[in-house]
Design goal:
about 260 residues, alpha/beta, three-stranded mixed β-sheet, 15 strands
Length: about 260
């Protein structure tokens, strides 16, 4: 059976202080957030993913959004250099975690910045969002790390949301999905399917046609079910208040030793 691991990191005591850029700040219930995070992790395990918990970073409010700290391609981990200074201390424990899993480790260096949430992988194509958190030097370093391994790196503009994957993700067949008012250039993607809700733009491929997605997108879940997929809904309302979504709460690592 293919190896499927998911890095996760539990929310810390300063979660409510997390950064917000494109939405109004709203109160965050830390106790409810922890319960939602535990349910999210349980859902991953229920669907065949081994969760690997990264050491907490309690001084970093946004550390629960572990996806932003590393980009994986095959067995190579590119340790991010987050675009927000306050998030840079988050990467050290993630680097240790991926090294323990046997990954080869590369790094993004100054002046480059990359957030993992700006990177969407579809097969060997890697879309990277050039926007507020990822700069041109970061895009160049991503290319240098992964193109020699067979990746095709495509940079696309991001201006209406925090990260590329705040606007688009992809279905198992590679169709890119997004909420049109928040997607800069739908034509940048091979096949684009508009969805009726912002939260419907975000899916995690669990395997076997199952799509992990937020409970706040019921119309999109109905659309996906009608297309033959199996939505698996989780309530992540407290993380949505911090511009979080189902993708950014884990780093999915498939077939590490393939």
């Amino acid at each position: 059976m293919p190896s499927r691991k998911a890095l996760i990191r539990r929310p810390g005591p300063r979660l409510a202080e997390g950064l917000v850029t494109h939405i109004e700040r709203a109160p965050v219930d830390a106790g409810l957030a922890l319960a939602q995070w535990e349910a999210y992790a349980d859902t991953l395990r229920t669907h065949g993913w081994e969760t690997v918990e990264v050491e907490p970073a309690d001084d970093c409010p946004d550390a629960v959004f572990v996806e932003d700290t590393v980009v994986m391609f095959r067995n190579v981990a590119l340790i991010a250099r987050p675009g927000a200074d306050s998030r840079r201390p988050e990467t050290a424990a993630v680097e240790e975690a991926v090294a323990r899993l046997g990954c080869a480790v590369n790094w993004v260096w100054e002046p480059g910045t990359i957030d993992g949430g700006d990177v969407l992988k579809i097969g060997d194509t890697i879309y990277v969002g050039r926007g507020g958190r990822t700069n041109a030097a970061g895009v160049r370093q991503l290319r240098a790390a992964f193109e020699p391994l067979g990746a095709r790196v495509v940079a696309v503009p991001v201006s209406k949301v925090l990260h590329l994957k705040s606007a688009v993700t992809a279905l198992p067949d590679g169709t890119v999905i997004g909420y049109p008012p928040l997607v800069d250039t739908p034509s940048a993607f091979g096949t684009f399917l508009p969805v009726p809700e912002e939260a419907g733009s975000h899916v995690v491929l669990l395997g076997g046609g199952k799509l992990l997605m937020a409970a706040s997108a019921p119309k999109t879940a109905e659309l996906f079910a009608d297309l033959g997929h199996e939505p698996v809904l989780v309530d992540i309302s407290e993380f949505e208040k911090l511009e979080g979504c189902v993708t950014c709460l884990s780093v999915r690592i498939r077939d590490l030793y393939a």
